[in-house]
Amino acid sequence: MPKNSIVGFPRIGEQRELKFALEAFWSGKISKAELLKSAEELRLKHLKHQNGIDLVSVNDFSLYDTMLDMIVTLGAIPQRFTDIKDDELTLYFAMARGDKTHTAMEMTKWFNTNYHYIVPELSKDTQFSLNSSKIVSEYKEAKALGIIPKINIIGLLTFLSLSKSTDESNPYNHFEKALSVYEELLNVIAALDNEVFVQFDEPIVVTDLTQEQKILLKLTYEKLSKVSPKLKLIVQTYFDYADKDSVEILAGTDIWGIGLDFVHGKENIENLKSLNGKYLIAGVVDGRNIWISDIKSVAGFLEEIAKTAGKERIIVSTSCSLLHTPYSLHRENKIDTDIKEWLSFSLEKLDEIALITKLFNNQILDDSEKLKIEANEKANISRKNSPKIHNSALAQKLKSFTNTSRNLPFEERIKIQKDALNYQPLATTTIGSFPQTSELRNLRSAFKKGEISLEQYEEGIRSLIKECIEIQETIGLDILVHGEFERNDMVEYFGEQLEGYAFTQNGWVQSYGSRCVKPPLLFGDITRVKPMTLKWITYAQSLTNKIVKGMLTGPVTILNWSFVRNDIPREQTAKQLAFVLHNEINDLQEAGIKIIQVDEAAFKEGYPLRESKKRDYEKWAVESFKLATSGAKESVQIHTHMCYSNFNDIIKTIEAMDADVISIETARAGNKILKIFKETGYSQEIGPGIYDIHSPRVPSVEEMTAQIKALLEIFPKEKLWINPDCGLKTRKWEEVTPSLKNMVEAVKIIRFSE
Ligand code: GLN
Ligand code: ZN
User: Fold this and answer.
1) Mind telling me the catalytic residues?
2) What is the domain-level CATH number for residue 664?
3) pLDDT, tens digit, for every residue of 461-479?
4) Is 601 in the pocket of ligand 1 (CB under 6 A)?
5) What distance in Å separates the CA atoms of residue 269 and residue 274, rounded to the nearest whole number?
6) CA 659 to ligand 1 center in whole angstroms
7) Is the CB of 689 under 6 A from ligand 1?
8) What is the span of the domain harbouring residue 489?
């Protein structure tokens, strides 16, 4: 019997080979055959890496997204794409990315990760029919290497729960049809071999399931587990704990194993007694973070749970797919060596799994394995004690850093602000960044390569700021920004200037399709060495009589877009970040900056999956924003920005952050969503983005006038700000300048007509 497995392996490649192959293919530089060849090479390489692992994942590879692959497997191609009769790949990428005549399918975040999947589109006409070719060929490809493949498939309940309906029909109406296709698929798989492992990914099980979902879970696995005695089915959950009901349901079927995440769902310990003799795929190595395991203590933990689950029934595994972890440390040669010892990326985690398995099963270790375990122990001790991580002076200071409220309540300070800042109703502004042109990218790369000096680089940035201020003045915006040219990324820019942060050269993680992000590593107590934004903002302000808004990234967003520590609670790091920002805000206001925006673009994505854990997150997330901003003088206006519009459930939480003005992304979602602000009541001022910056289109004056009028039906003009719906850095100047001119023109027309 297998002793270990991993839930899945990243597919983008050590040097993002898949990304580059895809992009070359999309731009016509390589052929379909060449793309498929690169994909095959990557798959084979990744399979071989999993040498020391018993159950090796197949079908975790994807040219774009595994949810999209599942749509294809089930034949659930949305009606609107069925006119594409070219080859399958053309259809596939049209669904993923759109083409001239089709808008792409919607993409959204995969649970609480930064990975995005394609949302299945179902309607009452959706047809299902099996297409098992990818799965079969990838199985055979792996089998030919002499390994035991485990086929990864997105489970039916997760598939339907994450689908959207395009015609108000209930996605669960398709349950029976879809289930029969799953059944058919399992029949095909059973014919492949005498014994086949199949893993159904069912992360939906870690959300608060409804009664209906629980029934479907039961029906699904009762049925699928009876398809063939040759199949060993695993239902894999991850990202949090599974509730007792679901585990009991699964344990009552004929499936072979249940996967539980013991890293992000400690409560799963309670489920051990409900396993009913099933194999336990024990997620003990963190698939979402980059820290080394403590190998001995993990083996000890397994020993502990084995008392209930049965030692011979435990499969050592990762907490979730390694998709969310970078590839390997091999190419990291710039990071401090002691910090590097604390890190473990995907390949290193494979090693950890192999070692933990041996230790746990009392297998004989060879010398090199013994050395590895010793080194692991040492690295864990050094991490616990390193002065690079632990700053006791900071801990002392933070004890008295507790004031979360501004001097005056909103109603009083807004009057003072309106006097001091002297802005009219429907004040126009932008979200912060302006186009990042190739000129800017060249400047940055020349500086990084050492081709130009720091002075030359900074001179270049200053001239971009100057030009940006001039353009905004010409356009006639009311509140200006400096344009964020000195930042390549809204988190990395701050991280680079803080103690306690480290950066990788190749720590890429797939975000969607060919897009990857390289989250910074927040490894230690965070402190600010010197002001981070002051020089640029004050320079911008010195160029104009209009107000320039200072621009910071908020504590929660910095945290949510970094790899964070697992040795202290997230809220403690949030407080450290709040302290840093508090000091920065103080420097800005002392230098005469009158409006400061603290972006919380990722506030919502940090929400836990379980209702019972949300309250706690909201509490410390709001608190850290307030700690960061509470030191602002009453006349200084605090803005915030959030990159989404669906506030229904969190509107009161957002209000509690007590920012004076919030700008949000609404342009794509329509005004229906905004009504909630009126219905629920929202005290502070608000700038619902009046046009979508994600599209190159220049909206007309008429269109924006109409949009402002619609907003005035919902919000009083005194509370309404007019702005685009997100930063402009991905757009071109040719789009930005006319769009903003039209926006300002629209406001003039409305103001005049009053
Ligand atoms: N101030 C940032 C910008 O304009 C905000 C980015 C964001 O919301 N993602 O780029
Ligand atoms: Zn945004």
Assistant:
1) 694
2) 3.20.20.210
3) 999 999 999 999 999 999 9
4) yes
5) 10
6) 17
7) no
8) 410-497+532-753
